[in-house]
Amino acid sequence: MDTALQDDACYLAMKTHDARFDGRFFTGVTSTGIYCRPVCRVRLPKRENCRFFPHAAQAESAGFRPCLRCRPELAPHSVTWSIQDASYILAHQAARLLDDPEAWGDGTPSAGELAVKMGVSDRHVRRIFEMQFGVSPVQYLQTRRLLTAKQLLADTGLPMTQVALISGFSSLRRFNAAFVEHYGLNPTQLRREGAGQPASGIAIRLGYRPPYDVEAMLAFLDKRAMTHVELISPAGKTVSRTLAVESGGERHTGWLTAQFDEPRCQVVLRVSDSLRQVLPIVIHRVRAMLDLDADPQAINALLHARFPDGDGLRVPGTMSGYELAVRAVLGQQITVAAARTLAQRLVDTFGEPIDTPIAQLQRLFPEPAVLAKASGDALGQLGIVRQRQAAIVSIAKAVASRKLQLHGGADVTTTIEALKALPGIGDWTAQYIAMRALRWPDAFPAGDVALHKALGVLDAPNRARAAEAASQDWKPWRSYAVIRAWAQL
Question: What is the pTM of this model?
Answer without folding.
Answer: 0.88
